[in-house]
Design a protein that fits this description.
The complex is a heterodimer.
Chain A (H helix, E strand, L loop, with lengths): L1 E2 L38 E6 L2 E6 L7 H8 L18 E4 L2 E4 L5 H4 L3 E3 L1 H4 L7 H8 L9 H14 L5 H7 L10 H11 L6
Parallel strand pairs in A: 2-6
Antiparallel strand pairs in A: 2-3, 4-5, 4-6
Helix pairs in contact in A: 4-7
Chain B lengths: L1 H13 L25 H4 E3 L5 E5 L8 H13 L6 E5 L16 H28 L6 E4 L2 E4 L6 E2 H4 L33 H6 L14 E5 L9 E5 L10 E5 L2 E6 L2 H10 L1 E4 L11 H7 L2 E10 L2 H4 L7 E5 L11 E7 L2 E6 L4 H12 L6 E5 L11 H15 L3 E4 L2 H7 L6 E9 L5 E11 L11 H5 L23 E11 L14 H19 L3 H8 L3 H13 L15 E9 L6 E10 L6 E11 L6 H21 L27 E6 L18 H13 L10 H9 L2
Parallel strand pairs in B: 2-3, 7-17, 15-16, 19-20, 23-24
Antiparallel strand pairs in B: 1-2, 4-5, 5-6, 7-10, 8-11, 9-10, 12-20, 13-18, 14-15, 14-17, 18-19, 21-22, 22-23
Helix pairs in contact in B: 3-4, 10-11, 14-18
The chains are: A alpha+beta, B alpha+beta.
């Protein structure tokens, strides 16, 4: 007989420096509701500019599930759930963060921007427009995370070069092989010739 | 049918948390709809307002079929693609056009729909001719109207097709439009799903919600084949609403939210038997040669290869390891089972093929089961999507509620059906002038089970439900012989009874490894004599389309004959490889420039050029995108990927143990398409993958003088090879 070797319930990366957002206070143990005496009944955060509230009992829930299931913001895709692929990237206070590695509690009090908050097909963010112009997506699973990461890059570097784009996107995986067009799109959005 | 689709659209708009799930609404009259691929009405309906719906049995997995199919139909109907609603892979509405596999989406699926549209055009013109009192030769169908070419009164399509549809057999001889007059086909039209994918509003199967839907999570055993001995259902009581579903060795939890299901699955205490039925990845290569075998088959024989090769050097082995589909997102499906019927929303590449499988699994008649395709995370063959659909179906039946199942990353890489291993031994003889005198290929491959409907699914297996057993591998023995003139030839395969892990078809099944071996070994023969590999290939080709792609890819790299390995000796090199896919389809040549770092053993691919001829090009931009994907994904598979496993389980279940290519390794790429409007359109989703490993291996030989015959080309392998110099 063999007991099932228990992996952690959610594979937060072991290395805390790779966590995308600092944990606020002690992380709740999985499945155990945060004590009502110590935590407010609601966690408050801003999502795409609108104030939102989450049950404090869900403080240990990775942000990605809350965005998708509670807010219906399904543009944020869960990829690996291990912080390795970048599919679920959102902006937290303007910085790219992996929403599978960020708990609701850690996001509380902060401003979250998802892919839906960047733009729409009718009024796309300049990088979204460039992704469309370059016809970048294949299956599209990784696309939103790359757009969010690229938007953050453009916010700090208006005209990134190919190597800078590669470096910024290094933590983002794509299985279909859309990399070439992603790089072109980032260059295009920065006003460079996408070569 | 309209009512059913409206209901789903309605569900989408009222379920507060769901995205707007408005599936395309078919035009035309319900009475005319059939799924018979012999009927025009199987593929097309025209509404009273002239709106057009196309029903396609093949699906868009991200490869651009969604635009290509529209272009092919629109061209024949004389309309723009924006006028076409496309319904894909829904067993209720689409004809069975076979799985979206083998690079057949356009070549078979699209061609069939084009012929239906051409038949429809002919019928519409005939009908209009009678109504307008004109000769059919005077009329054309453009912009939704049948009108005389010289002007005059016209009639709209919607006025010509009544409630009974076309009621017309698809005419295989209905004339197609002259490519010289194409307005839509051949244009790089944007894919309609890209804006929504880029803005986060594209609806995937993962986003599909039904009222009362539960989220399921299957707990796979710690070892392949382990039996479930004991489950402590109280161990998940802390998760509100979560409960255990157990059917023999099938163990799952369901809960109201996905996160709750994940938490419950992590908390659930279960005891499994020990199981150690795997061989471990280190034993695979020897096991392929050891058998047991169920057949030996000579695939090709010409002259007397054995006699011709009597004096030739001994054969050399090429090895391709077990690989995962490695889809980026989790396999996912939603199922609803009840009232003697079932509907499964799935990202399957083969909804029609799996319909009888799910009917048997659920104990329902086939016509009571509907599979609806919705986009999933990338699909390059049968990955975990169909298993996820079986998970959801079993759970929906057990709970009486709609159930959504999404896998974890560990299960995705651990339990997806795997690309099978391949061992290929090659022996050849080349004349001093570069003519192939003799060639022998011996392959050791798992044999696909004849007549097996599909890869056996995990959940029915665990639940003890009957399902046909066997192996699915795809057509993995193709392209095992050189595409060049050869006097004496034998291609033989030793068919193995089993595979080390559950196998399935994975992009360009088998042909990536076979072309890797054949095109690498061809370079070995050239190097043995000191001949330029490009010139020698061109001399051996008898097919001018092959000559064209090889010349083009080489000229894009400014290839000039020189000695190999590179006399510069600076670690830089170039390589080229060629394929005529399946010896009957697309022609591709890939050339590559690499740098090999002798200290670290790292291979850096600097530049890739590709020339591609798949006949008539439907959409050049979508085709280029597919070629880019073929190149990058196959570079990843060649440089990095091998599934590792011990005697119990797969151990490569994350990016550190099963790495895939990252942005740092992305080379510059130049792709040239050779459009041949007079030729039939062939596939673009697979062929360009096949020359990539050999072009890379040949470039590494040119750069460093080492011949890599085992995939992946890890730095350790490179350094080991360098030490033998």
């Amino acid at each position: 007989m063999a007991a099932l070797g228990k992996p952690p319930i959610w594979p937060y990366t072991a290395d805390p420096t790779k966590r995308e957002a600092p944990m606020s206070g002690k992380p709740a143990s999985p499945g155990k509701p945060v004590s009502k005496a110590k935590a407010p009944a609601l966690l408050s955060l801003t999502v795409n500019g609108a104030p939102r509230h989450a049950a404090a009992a869900d403080g240990d829930m990775p942000l990605v599930f809350w965005l998708r299931d509670e807010l219906g913001l399904t543009g944020t895709h869960l990829g690996c759930g291990k912080g390795e692929c970048g599919s679920c990237t959102v902006l937290i206070d303007g910085e790219p963060a992996r929403s599978c590695q960020t708990t609701l509690a850690a996001a509380a009090g902060k401003a979250v921007t998802t892919i839906e908050g960047l733009g729409t097909p009718q009024a796309p963010h300049p990088l979204q427009a460039a992704f469309i112009a370059e016809q970048t997506a294949q299956c599209g699973w990784c696309t939103a995370g790359m757009v969010v990461e690229g938007a953050a890059l453009l916010a700090r570097n208006a005209q990134p070069g190919r190597d800078e784009a590669k470096a910024a996107l290094e933590g983002h995986l794509c299985r279909c092989g859309s990399h070439h067009r992603v790089l072109r799109a980032v260059l295009r959005a920065g006003g460079r010739e996408p070569s | 049918m309209t009512r059913e689709l409206s209901r789903r659209a309605f569900l989408g708009s009222t379920a507060a948390l769901s995205v707007a799930f408005t599936l395309p609404r078919p035009a035309g009259a319900a009475t005319a709809k059939t799924n018979d691929p012999a009927e025009v009405d199987g593929f097309l309906s025209i509404g009273p307002d002239g709106s057009v719906t196309v029903y396609c049995g093949k699906v868009d997995l991200g490869q651009g079929l969604r635009v290509a199919i529209r272009q092919m139909a629109a061209e024949e109907l004389g309309i723009g693609i924006e006028s076409i609603v496309l319904i894909e892979g829904d067993t209720r509405f689409t004809p069975d056009q076979g799985p979206t596999a083998g690079s057949t989406g356009v070549a078979r699926g699209g061609v069939q729909i084009r012929q239906a549209a051409a038949t429809a055009r002919q019928a519409l013109i005939r009908l209009a001719a009678a109504r307008l009192d004109r000769s059919p030769e005077d009329l054309d169908l453009r912009d939704g109207l049948v009108a005389p070419r010289d002007g005059g009164r016209s009639i709209g399509m919607g006025d010509l097709v009544g409630e009974n549809g076309f009621a017309l057999k698809l005419d295989p001889k209905a004339p197609l439009r002259d490519p010289a007059e194409y307005r839509v086909v051949g244009k790089p039209l944007p894919r309609p799903d890209v804006p929504a994918k880029v803005c986060g509003t594209h609806a995937y199967v993962h986003d599909f919600k039904l009222p009362g839907m539960l989220h399921g999570r299957v707990i796979r055993p710690p070892s392949v084949g382990a039996a479930l001995l004991k489950v402590d259902e109280t161990s998940i009581k802390a998760v509100k609403g979560a409960r255990v579903v157990r059917i023999k060795d099938f163990l799952a939890v369901v809960a109201n939210r996905e996160w709750d299901a994940i938490r419950a699955a992590g908390m659930l205490k279960a005891i499994w038997s020990d199981s150690a039925r795997l061989m471990g990845h280190g034993a695979v290569r020897d096991a392929l040669r050891a058998g047991p075998f169920i057949a030996e088959e000579v695939l090709k024989a010409k002259g007397d290869a054995a006699a011709r090769l009597a004096e030739a050097p001994p054969a050399v082995d090429y090895y391709w390891p077990v690989q995962s589909h490695g889809s980026l997102g989790p396999s996912c499906a939603v199922a609803q089972v009840g009232n003697g019927a079932a509907t499964i929303w799935t990202a399957s590449q083969a909804t029609h093929k799996f319909r009888p499988t799910f009917a048997a699994l659920l104990g329902l008649a086939v016509d009571k089961v509907r599979l609806v395709y919705l986009d999933g995370s990338g699909c390059y063959g049968m990955n975990g999507h169909d298993d996820a659909a079986a998970d959801a179906a079993l759970l929906a039946k057990a709970t009486g509620k709609p159930v959504r199942v999404a896998w974890s990353r560990d299960d995705e890489l651990g339990w997806d059906p795997k690309g099978p291993p391949q061992l290929i031994a090659l022996r050849g003889a080349m004349s001093p002038m570069g003519q192939l005198l003799g060639w022998s290929t011996e392959m050791w491959l798992p044999k696909a089970t004849a007549g097996l409907p599909n890869v056996p699914l995990l959940s029915p297996e665990a639940a003890g439900l009957d399902q046909p057993k066997g192996l699915v591998t795809g057509l993995i023995a193709q392209n095992g012989d050189p595409p060049y003139a050869v006097a004496d030839l034998e291609v033989k395969v030793h068919w193995l009874a089993d595979a080390p892990l559950r196998p399935s078809n994975i992009r360009a099944p088998g042909k990536i490894a076979n072309v890797f071996a054949v095109e690498s070994y061809f370079d070995e023969l050239c190097a043995g004599i000191g001949l330029d590999p490009l010139v020698t290939r061109l001399m051996g080709l008898r097919d001018l389309r092959g000559v064209a792609v090889l010349s083009k890819a080489a000229s894009m790299m400014a290839w000039a004959p020189r000695p190999v390995p590179n006399p510069k000796g600076d670690g830089s090199g170039r390589g080229i490889a060629y394929v005529h896919y399946k010896h009957s389809e697309t022609y591709v040549a890939v050339a590559m420039e690499v740098a090999v770092d002798r200290d670290t053993g790292r291979i850096a691919v600097k530049r890739v050029t590709c020339a591609h001829d798949c006949g008539l090009v439907i959409n050049p931009d979508a085709l280029k995108m597919q070629i880019e994907g073929c190149v990058l994904q196959t570079l990843s598979r060649t440089l990095l990927e091998e599934v590792t496993f011990d005697t119990s389980r797969v151990t490569s279940t994350d990016q550190s143990t099963y790495p895939i290519l990252g942005f740092a390794e992305v080379p510059h790429m130049d792709i040239e398409l050779i459009d041949r409007p007079e030729q039939p359109p062939m596939g673009g989703g697979e062929a360009a993958a096949t020359p990539v490993p050999a072009a890379l291996a040949n470039a590494v030989f040119d750069a460093a003088g080492i011949r890599l015959r085992t995939v992946p080309f890890t730095p350790e392998r490179v350094k080991a090879a360098l030490r033998t110099l």
